[in-house]
Amino acid sequence: MRRVYEAHQKVVTTNVSTALNTSVSPVVDLQVLKGRFPVWQRGRIADSAGFLMDFAGVYDIPRPAFSLARQVLQAETYMVSYVTLV
What we know:
By secondary structure, the chain is mostly helical. The protein is about 75% helix and about 0% strand.
């Protein structure tokens, strides 16, 4: 999740209008994921995101990590459904 966060932070900080707002939390963008990570790494990232969601009550994990994991899964699920329809 850290690598996804860092990839999106670079995109956010390059935007002049949001560079001054340091509290901007990244929204997972499928295009950023596709541009920064090969398919096999995105699969591992989605696997990690699923693990976080499955074991939310077992481990003490920061809340923003769950939000990021949920967004990663939603982005990848959208991609899978799009490819299936095409």
